[in-house]
Amino acid sequence: MTPERLRAFCLEFNAATEEFPFGPETSVFKVLGKMFALTALDGKPLTVNLKCDPDDAVRLREEHAAIVPGWHMNKRHWNTVNVAGLPDRLVRELIEDSYDLVVAGLPKAERLRLDRA
Predict the structure, then answer these.
(1) Measured between alpha carbons, how far is 89 from 35 in angstroms, rounded to an integer?
(2) Model confidence, pTM
(3) Measured between alpha carbons, how far is 19 from 91 in angstroms, rounded to an integer?
(4) Rounded to an integer, what distance in angstroms lies between the CA atom of residue 16 and that of residue 11?
(5) pLDDT digits (tens, 9 = 90+) for 46-85
(6) β partners of residue 48
(7) Which has the closest alpha carbon to 98: 21, 28, 5?
(8) How far, in Å, CA of 108 to CA of 114, rounded?
(9) 38 forms bridges with which residues in the sheet?
(10) pLDDT digits 0-9 by tens, 79-114
(11) H or E segment to which residue 80 belongs
């Protein structure tokens, strides 16, 4: 997956935005103000931090060398994913899971507005 495709995919979700609170080199993708992905799109290798269910996080790290505990994040709830080390399909699933986890923590009215009850 290219940086451009990663960025475009993150922005496809309802109410997703890209912000730069840590400087112009770090893209932070949010839904209604809550972060679901963090990446340096010009990073070599291209990695993205994604929220993950704690049990799934451990399993994914055991199954894929390209998935490690979240760098500079709460390692129980975040993974750092080396995009080049995984199939695009899996990267997309991990991004969508991260988005869904963040949305699940929003108030019900906001979840319904996002069509993600």
Answers:
(1) 21
(2) 0.93
(3) 21
(4) 5
(5) 999 999 999 999 999 999 999 999 988 888 899 999 999 8
(6) 39, 81
(7) 28
(8) 10
(9) 28, 49
(10) 999 999 899 999 999 999 999 999 999 999 898 888
(11) strand 78-82
